[in-house]
Write a structure and sequence with these properties.
The chain is of the alpha+beta class. It folds into 2 domains: 80 residues; 168 residues, no CATH class. 65% of the residues lie in helices and 12% in strands. The protein is built from 9 helices and 4 strands. Strands 1, 2, 3 and 4 form a 4-stranded antiparallel β-sheet that branches. Helix 4 runs antiparallel to helix 6 and helix 6 packs across helix 7. The chain is rod-shaped and about 155 Å long. The N and C termini lie far apart (156 Å).
């Protein structure tokens, strides 16, 4: 009986010793798990901060790129509106020796001033242009163009139009009128470089190829004046409408 009690005590002591040994191990495992969880959380926070910085940097970079691209596009658009740029492009086009584009216009019928009763002119014309884009610009301003062309046609007498020189002079005026509508700055440069006299300027004002202020001594356009003085010589072939060709010309 005594032996049994002794054995039981030894078993209880061993169990207590084992439990005592297991408790620190469990505590160590719990501490390790907590440390691992804390480290993992710290890593997640670091990765989250890095990801946020990357996203913010990408957004800021894109915004700066978009702003720079917009400013560059705006500057390019502004540059393309200057007469110097347009003249450069047209001279470049001319150097490429591309064939002209011809635009057919509807027939015009106008009364002609003169003695000996009423007279009229029936005329149809073809416009020689530098490129196909001129056709679109002419269509955009077609009502104004037709009105101005009718004004030029009806301003001539039969006597004036009975000569080759008279027809050619009118054809040049029609080209100037159309160019002044679809490309006013470049046309102004061309006219300034021709150094027209007062009477010629007044006639150009009358047909709408020049502003009314020209013969009053006011500056037509500082940009046009500078371009006329500093840049290339502009000829009829540098203008959008290079020439007016008549394919029907009947006077009665």
């Amino acid at each position: 009986m005594a032996d049994e009690n002794e054995n039981q005590e030894q078993a209880e002591q061993a169990a207590a010793a084992a439990a005592g040994a297991a408790a620190p191990a469990a505590n160590e495992e719990a501490a390790a798990a907590a440390a691992a969880a804390k480290a993992k959380k710290k890593k997640l926070i670091i990765f989250g901060v890095i990801g946020l910085v990357v996203i913010v940097g990408a957004v800021v970079g894109y915004m700066m790129y978009a702003k720079g691209a917009a400013e560059k596009a705006a500057k390019q658009a502004e540059l393309e509106q200057t007469p110097e740029y347009k003249l450069q492009q047209q001279l470049k086009f001319k150097k490429e020796n591309k064939p002209p584009v011809f635009i057919k216009m509807d027939e015009f019928t106008v009364n002609l001033p003169g003695r000996g009763g009423e007279h009229y002119l029936q005329a149809s014309m073809v416009l020689r242009t530098a490129d196909s884009s001129t056709d679109g610009r002419i269509k955009d301003f077609l009502p104004i163009i037709r009105d101005r062309v009718i004004l030029v046609l009806s301003s001539r007498t039969m006597q004036e139009l009975s000569t080759v020189e008279g027809k050619n002079a009118m054809a040049r005026e029609i080209a100037l009128v159309i160019n002044s509508i679809i490309e006013p700055q470049l046309t102004a440069i061309f006219i300034l470089q021709q150094q027209p006299g007062t009477a010629e300027l007044q006639n150009l004002e009358r047909i709408g190829a020049m502003p009314q202020s020209t013969t009053a001594g006011e500056k037509l356009s500082q940009t046009a004046v500078q371009a006329a003085a500093q840049f290339w010589k502009v000829s009829e072939m540098d203008l959008p409408v290079q020439q007016v060709l008549f394919d029907k010309f009947v006077m009665q």
